[in-house]
Amino acid sequence: MEQETLFSDTGKSRRFPTPSGKLEFFTPAIEEKFTELGLSSLPEFYGERENLVDMPYVEFVEGDDAVGVINPFHRVKALTSRAKIRQPGEFSPGAKLRAQGFDLELVTGRPPAPHFHSWTHYAWQAQEMWPDLYVQIHPKAAASRNISDGEKVRIETGHGKIEAVAWVTPGIRETNVFVPIGWGERQPFHPWHSVNFLTDRTQRDPLSDQTNTKSLLCRVSKV
Questions:
Q1: Which 8-state DSSP code applies to residue 110?
Q2: With left for phi above 0 and alpha for psi between -120 and 50, is residue 27 left, alpha or beta?
Q3: Contact at 8 Å (CB) between 144 and 177?
Q4: Predicted confidence (pLDDT) per residue in 190-202, tens digit
Q5: How many angstroms separate the CA atoms of 85 and 60, rounded?
Q6: CATH number of 96-222
Q7: pLDDT digits over 51-86, tens only?
Q8: What ranges do the domains of the chain cover?
Q9: What is the C-alpha separation between 223 and 212, in angstroms, rounded?
């Protein structure tokens, strides 16, 4: 099978939306943009602030009450905060939370097919299929906490707490739990507090401004 040309110097066949028309990994212009946010265009590894294993993490230098800087990577004017990569240590956020018993990693995302955001909760078919907010938890993690399938449990992070129905399943890592988005405490049918009560708006990616929804330390207990 013939491969399409990814790059060519001839006429309008350039495929990459860069000033040079080539893949650009480092240029003074790119470095200037990253420097504006307190980072570098050269590879610098960092993970999320809250993990079971400590690693470098990114932290905003300024709070949301500060004016911030214009994000040079957005096509429209958007303000963001400068960031700095911190090295892990004895007093890193993850270490402090683990010392308080937050020994599971929370992952959140889209629920099964019947629900999309919150509006599908008004359809009786979707209500019957998935009426309640749930938390997926591994059988070993559930057993060590005396949690049975279908029981109501409390999920806590360093930022808030909610309740959900335990879904004990081997289809998830022993160190993780999963809580879907889409439920809300103001819904007229099967109201539950949203997983948003567990997240932290200060843990955002400095480039995209997306909130961390894939690695938050939590603890789960029977209600």
A1: -
A2: beta
A3: no
A4: 899 999 999 998 8
A5: 9
A6: 2.40.40.20
A7: 999 899 999 988 888 888 899 988 888 888 899 999
A8: 28-94, 96-222
A9: 27
Buried b (16+ CB within 10 A) or exposed e, 71-101: bbbeeeeeebbbbeeeebeeebbbeebbeee
Nearest Cα neighbor of 115 from 102, 103, 124, 106 is 124
Nearest to 196 by CA among 160, 169, 153: 160
Q: Which residues of the chain have pLDDT under 50?
A: none
Model confidence, pTM: 0.84
Residue 39 to residue 41: CA distance in whole angstroms: 7
Tokens of 157: 């992070």
Angstrom distance (rounded) from CA 153 to CA 222:
4
Question: What residue type is 199 in one-letter code?
Answer: T
Q: In this structure, what DSSP letter does residue 50 have?
A: S
Residue 155 has a CB neighbour count (10 Å cut-off) of: 25
The single residue listed with the structure tokens 């979707």 is 126
* Angle, vertex CA 178, rays to CA 173 and CA 180, nearest 5: 155
- The alpha carbon of 109 is separated from its chain's Cα centroid by a whole number of angstroms, namely 8
